[in-house]
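Hi R.,

Here's the chain you asked about this morning:
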Amino acid sequence: MSLAPTPLGRLGDTIAVRPTRVRYLVLGAVVAAYFITYMVRVMLSNAEPTLEKEFGFDITTFGWILFAYQIAYAGFQIPGGWFGDKVGPRTALAAVVAWYSLFTLATIFAFDAISMGVLLFLIGVGEAGAFPIANRALSRWMLPSERAIAQGTTHAGSRLGGALTPIFVIWLMTNYGWRSPFVVCSIIGLAWAILWLRFYRNLPAEHRMVNEGELSTINAALGTFAKGRRKVPWGQILRNRQLWLLACMYFCYGYDIGVFLSRFPKYLSSARGIDLDSLGIYASMPLFAGLFGDILGGGISDHLLKKTGNVKFSRRIVSVVGFAMAAVAVALAAAAESVDVSIAWFCLAVFSFELTVGVSWAITLDIGGEFAGSVSAVMNTLGNIGASIAIVVTGYLARDYGWGYAFGVIAALAVIAALLNLTIDASRRLYRDTEAAA
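And the predicted structure, written out as tokens:
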């Protein structure tokens, strides 16, 4: 019996059943993965003041330790995306989350800068695959008209993790020592990996909770996916100019947001005189603001797409406006004399940056299709190379020239990102289906 996606009611002797909404549960599971990943990522930078005292690190030494994490995170994006496309996101995402959770636990045994750097490098190797693989996990589930809001929601999960983590980490370190948050985060990650394996399926047709109504809705929008795996058309993808415009834009975003994720607590303590008791609250505020930007940016883009049917315009306008607003807000935040005024401008800056991020990842689905994991991995590689450079460069700029110069670079890159977005066309697929067969 065929069950049509219509409201509940009796049609002759046949009862029509509403489509299930399992894809939203999948989205929720991915949001949780983003949350956990950012808990670990932001925990590292918020532990900086305590670890500097524990091990005698200075600002540049710890910058290089964070660089070890960040360069691994950047360097393993493409292998991670390939891994997800190769074996499927169900196995791949569980594997990488379990990997970085175990090495997060191992970090409690670090005893100097080298051992800390090596362990953070290994955490970065695992975390690198999380976002590209999660993006691939959504590619066969979310409808085109839901992509930007879905990506905004997932990144809101990451920012929520980033926003809550400073408060959580500092409370744990104050009461139980610096090792305690590493133990707690590792346990949470391992539990998530087990639940993901039990719940997620690579294809909607394979999930026992999906009814025919929802399956028909997904297939009508995305087409019917074959169960076999197809070869990633790397030649077509890497030769496409649109990919590199997108990746360069994301380099600018990665550098800018990387400063807020890795060096902002240090800025607050050294330049603004915020003590440890208040540091968690102040460091969290811009990331809380970013959470709303993630959801709003994706929601606006999808709304415009439904209204206009123009994917290029719907993606572009949100990103251009977001980066332009961020450039202005960062400049005003750095120049403000009052701590509270400065924090308010920084909140607007991160909010504006985050208006763009869900849109950027939605574009990887728009232009990457079935190979969104690999496409997003290339984009995210450039983004995290930017973040890696930001970690080291910001430390030297702050030490030698002052924090004003460090934030001036952020504002300049935001302007460049806005200009690059004017050249990105989300309506153009990166490859031809006829050449992507196994």
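DSSP finds 18 helices and two strands in the chain.

Let me know if you need anything else.
M.
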